[in-house]
Automatic annotation (TrEMBL), chains A, B, C, D, E:
The keyword Ribonucleoprotein belongs to this UniProt entry's keyword annotation: no
Alphabetically ordered keywords of this record: Cell membrane, Ion transport, Magnesium, Membrane, Transmembrane, Transmembrane helix, Transport
Topological category with respect to the lipid bilayer: Multi-pass membrane protein
Protein name: Magnesium transport protein CorA
Ranges where the record places region Disordered: 1-30
Main location: membrane
Subcellular localization(s) per the UniProt record: Cell membrane; Membrane
Coiled coil stretches, renumbered: none
Pfam families: CorA (PF01544)
Organism of this sequence: Pararhodobacter zhoushanensis
Gene: corA
Bilayer-crossing regions: 289-309, 321-342
NCBIfam families membership: corA (TIGR00383)
Function according to Swiss-Prot or TrEMBL: Mediates influx of magnesium ions.
Amino acid sequence: MTKPPRYQRRRRSPPGTPPGTLTADPDAGETRVRAIRFNAEGVSEDDSLAPCAPGSILWLNIDGLADTDLLQKIGTSFGLHPLALEDVVNVHQRPKAEEYEAHQFIVLRMPEPGQDGLHTEQVSIFLGDGFVITVQEHAGDVFDPVRTRLRNPLGQMRKRGADYLCYALVDAAIDAYFPVLEALGEKLEQLEDTVVFDPDAVDMGDIHVLKRELMSIRSAILPMRDVVATLQREETQRFSDNTRLYLRDCQDHAVQLIETIQTYREIATGLVDILLSSQSNRANEVMQVLTLIATIFIPLTFIVGVYGMNFDDMPELHWRYGYPAVMGIMGLIAVVLAIWFYRKGWLGRR
Amino acid sequence: MTKPPRYQRRRRSPPGTPPGTLTADPDAGETRVRAIRFNAEGVSEDDSLAPCAPGSILWLNIDGLADTDLLQKIGTSFGLHPLALEDVVNVHQRPKAEEYEAHQFIVLRMPEPGQDGLHTEQVSIFLGDGFVITVQEHAGDVFDPVRTRLRNPLGQMRKRGADYLCYALVDAAIDAYFPVLEALGEKLEQLEDTVVFDPDAVDMGDIHVLKRELMSIRSAILPMRDVVATLQREETQRFSDNTRLYLRDCQDHAVQLIETIQTYREIATGLVDILLSSQSNRANEVMQVLTLIATIFIPLTFIVGVYGMNFDDMPELHWRYGYPAVMGIMGLIAVVLAIWFYRKGWLGRR
Amino acid sequence: MTKPPRYQRRRRSPPGTPPGTLTADPDAGETRVRAIRFNAEGVSEDDSLAPCAPGSILWLNIDGLADTDLLQKIGTSFGLHPLALEDVVNVHQRPKAEEYEAHQFIVLRMPEPGQDGLHTEQVSIFLGDGFVITVQEHAGDVFDPVRTRLRNPLGQMRKRGADYLCYALVDAAIDAYFPVLEALGEKLEQLEDTVVFDPDAVDMGDIHVLKRELMSIRSAILPMRDVVATLQREETQRFSDNTRLYLRDCQDHAVQLIETIQTYREIATGLVDILLSSQSNRANEVMQVLTLIATIFIPLTFIVGVYGMNFDDMPELHWRYGYPAVMGIMGLIAVVLAIWFYRKGWLGRR
Amino acid sequence: MTKPPRYQRRRRSPPGTPPGTLTADPDAGETRVRAIRFNAEGVSEDDSLAPCAPGSILWLNIDGLADTDLLQKIGTSFGLHPLALEDVVNVHQRPKAEEYEAHQFIVLRMPEPGQDGLHTEQVSIFLGDGFVITVQEHAGDVFDPVRTRLRNPLGQMRKRGADYLCYALVDAAIDAYFPVLEALGEKLEQLEDTVVFDPDAVDMGDIHVLKRELMSIRSAILPMRDVVATLQREETQRFSDNTRLYLRDCQDHAVQLIETIQTYREIATGLVDILLSSQSNRANEVMQVLTLIATIFIPLTFIVGVYGMNFDDMPELHWRYGYPAVMGIMGLIAVVLAIWFYRKGWLGRR
Amino acid sequence: MTKPPRYQRRRRSPPGTPPGTLTADPDAGETRVRAIRFNAEGVSEDDSLAPCAPGSILWLNIDGLADTDLLQKIGTSFGLHPLALEDVVNVHQRPKAEEYEAHQFIVLRMPEPGQDGLHTEQVSIFLGDGFVITVQEHAGDVFDPVRTRLRNPLGQMRKRGADYLCYALVDAAIDAYFPVLEALGEKLEQLEDTVVFDPDAVDMGDIHVLKRELMSIRSAILPMRDVVATLQREETQRFSDNTRLYLRDCQDHAVQLIETIQTYREIATGLVDILLSSQSNRANEVMQVLTLIATIFIPLTFIVGVYGMNFDDMPELHWRYGYPAVMGIMGLIAVVLAIWFYRKGWLGRR
């Protein structure tokens, strides 16, 4: 049986640390930086931290959180708020969108493939004037499609602003849940077929693990829907009206994910009922066989016992047809009981 | 037992495709176009894509999504937004109503008859100035009543605008759920009667499949109620006050569908309890029979065993009335036990 | 066992009929009209359809929906909206309050006594300038108290306007649920006593039927609460401030009904748990008796079997005290087992 | 077992009675009136119905509803609204706060000690200019602490207005639920201990009765929270800003009561699961004992039966060591089975 | 098994006490006062109650509630509202934030380690002009990190106002729940592993106690989230915009706690299903063994009984191959039954 996934702990600064202090997690991955600079004319990629020329847009992607000094330096140079920076380092934040004076701060969670079940990984996004900074816990390939679109000279993406890039990244993070959820859906379909057609092969623990994984995705996706809704609302001035149309599309996807999860959960809950019912059915079937055999043979065994008694004076024993008569009577009793059971429906049903 | 229906997957563009790109589903049906042009004077039908003369209204109905080039062409010629067009092609969208500058975009889902259970099919509707465009996954007959009303020279429909046609189409899509739900209601009634009067003939899996189908309809209808509510609200300027009265009626129908589904679900859930209880009752009944037989005969069998022992010195065996005395005592024991069971209510109840 | 009530189907116009067309249900009752005209001075009753003199108020009560031509004629003469008229004829509408330019339209549902369980019947009310029109599916006596009050020369009712008459009718329709719900409450109390004191006499199906009836009332009452709330709100100008005070009272009654239904449902759900538990208890009791008897006698039967063996060389058989010794040992075993069972609490508890 | 409490019926005027008519309940208690007049200088108590001198405040307390003529007279003399007066007489109203032009009308419910379980009693409060009128179903002592505070010459209460007196009475009514709820909490704690440590001594019906009592309190307290919230809101001009601070405190108490009830209900629901589980455990234990004994002795009994057969030619019977050999083999079988059971954990666990 | 935690009772003033009177709980801890005065330049600590010089901020921390006279004196000297002071003394208040004219009043609950399970302790905070007063039930170390930060000459905290100190204290109180919840999470993980891999070692009562502890934390945390939301809202003028950013962070933590509790509760509820299912499985397994043995041996025992009968005329007994023939037939029957059981899957599955 699959082991249920471990709970993810929220990482916190040690007690007494003032808010805004960056403390590296000893398990954090090595920090690597990739910068992409682009405008309508072209794209260049390097690993410099220098800001962009006006009219160009910088996308700074940081993988791994070990080097807090570097993060601090980037924070100072781009005017990132200390509270936001702290949330970047202390992973296992709840997805959220917070507006600071100098930039929009977005925390998302992406599904992370792992051999011990499903985990989610934090992605932090800063959207400022002319720059987008993304920070991932580990190097991942979820943003690769966005890079491909940027490198494509015919694509529309280079012509749009930093807000559109930010939308494309949020969209990529949300879309990453579809294959994960579809895999769970297939697992659920298999489980459902097995429960309906071969209930003994199902373990209640398997349903439990599936529900746990659905809960884990849901707890990541639910706040992400609110994040996209916040970004799309009128007050935030960082997103153009046109990009807002795209964010609306993105929110549709999040809602669809949540509804699918909800449906899967209800189905999984229904499976528990079927399983309990089929276990109970099986117990009844076993009990019927026992009752059948015992009810027929126990009286007969009593009768043969009677004629095994050693009383001096048992006239039946000396009758000529005593033996066949007793055997006949016992046969009759068996037939009558069998007919009675048949009428009660205990023979051959199911 | 019915196999539970398969989950419907959302179709998505391949990763890295920019939003607004149309990619045909390899399974998509062949594209066919039917145009109906009408005004208060008359109706003409053809398959031309040309826009309408002013004062007339064009209803363009497209079945099948294979020909994305044609869709793209229609999109350009009527000014349809690329994001909306993409949602038309990538079916399994959630029902929604989105307002674009040039047109209102509506996604609905219609019930689709299928031999492997209940599915829903996407219908996309564009309502612009003087035109309504509907796109269905497959050719269906859900809009036939609307066509009949348009062809009727005495009907009021030709005299109304495109917004009223749009209402009539939405209303037809929602009304298509009533027969489907009534069929489920009849199934549920049968199931209910069987559960109450002949519980052994019921399979928990049948209740599960029914609940699954109710969940499937509900997930289509719930957002459609919100769609109609959105259209009916004051902000949307595409619908006249008079058409809004009709939309209110349409929303009533959606609410009624949802409440019926909710009621059916609660009933189905209640059936599970009855079924489990009746299974448990049956097990008790079987157990009582076993206990009755065993409890009466096991002590008697012991007694006859005693007098089957081969001890040299068992005086009872040589008494003249030993045999009838033992038989009498055993008869007495049986009667006493039977009376005890009767008093406990284990004989003949139910 | 009571048969669960049949589901009520929504009546719809045949597909392709434009909204606003009246199609009579073949099962509809014969149409009868009663007109009451009153002002502060007096009351007159006839069956004319003529409008009232100014300063007087007309209450037109129509029972039975078979004569759609007459309904159409009344609709035209009082300026009733076609959509509202269609809702009058297509019964099984959800209760609702809709304001049209010329009149307020209210749909309510009244409990209808029937031998095959509880049904609800549609009542439609039109409140216009100087007139109230009520339409019932069948002739009923729910409005009789209102008639009595109108005929009473000392009553205040004649002095008030059409809005107060409309309130009195709504109030009568809501009050009609109290005796129905009290009857259900008594049924539930009986069921509760039986479950607690004599669980074997209870059938899970009875609880199911009761829950079904509660759901049926609730689905009628819930929207009626919203109807009264809508009427009471400030925007609707058809009700005077004074009548609004009375509507507030009326809403209190609806809320009280809903809370009572909710409470009854929770109690009924709790009964299912008790019933399942008592069935399980009973099974345990039966099993204990079986185990007691079998566990005591099976070893003893083995022992007597041993001394029934026919080996040549069994010295115990020839001992002088062999027989009484074996009987004594078996008695001892029985006593020891009985003590053990007593200590485990399997004897005489409950 | 405690009998579950009876449902409380709403008292209604007979059908056809116009709203605002007072009809005495035949079971209503005798009417007694106590008047307290006070201002900052002093307090006087009598049973006169005369209004107060300006600058003084009158608290009229009425116990028992039998004398409707007196109530009508008081209503007329203080300008109480007929609808409110009717609600006073027709007890079993839902708690509510209604503002009339001449006075604020408040309906509350107080817990009422009774030997057949927990009931609630209606208290009606009128707050007008310079007077507070309270009407209880029966004479009770819930308002005694308020009287004590009024009689205390050093207390602040005399110096405050009628609104503060009204707050004090509402507060006393809400506070009366704390001891009731604490008694239920103690009952629940006892039940919980019994379920966990001695499940056989618990009856599912006891948990049911407790849940019923919690539901009964909740249905009284839930609307009382809304009453206090309504009084505290800005629109009502009858309460000074200072008294509103006290009402906020009072609302806190109501919320705390509701949360406690909710917690108790969840705990009680959890107890049902434990109880069902422990019943199931007990059945398993009984079954294990039966299986153990039967599985060991049934094969042995078969073997001794074999050597009890009377065939002429059974060589084992004549072997010298036949008897001890068979006894030894049977001993071996018993030991092997015992080891097998031990390994399966059926011996001595729990 | 762990004993379920005792319910915490709300402490109330004796009936008849006017609101705002301080009555010491006989069990209250000894009162101790610690004052910290600080400004950007430095920090001083003493136990004087004197107010601060302008430009400095006073943090008065009071542990233990026995000395109500002292509390009254502090209340008078700092202008604390009598109702708020009463809430300080009558512990077991629900967390809340109330604004009074002279100060903001906050009630929180902190987890309190105890050997008889988890309890929460009340912390009251007053935030006024230039002072923060905190009152705890017992001396605790939850605020120590804040003290450490104040004493640190390099920290930013001294430079900020009383509102930031207040935020830091609220944040410390909320953060104190993380380790408590993580400990519960570990308990739950262990329980989960045991349920899935060794269900017999689990007691339903353990799950119950865990759920009880989660409910206890939740009832403290849920209102604390609302408290922080209230403080963060625009209306309250006591918190600067900058401090509000920090409060937003603090609210995130509360939401995360609540979601984690919710997830844990759902998991615990799922465990109950698995446990019941595995108990049922185990019962089935036991029943199968019994049925197997009984079904095979009961017919065989009947057969040997037949040939143990003492009829004079039983020809089989005198046949030469009678004995081996009967033994062979019985062997055949056993094999046929075993094959039948194998086909039914009762042998060796699981």
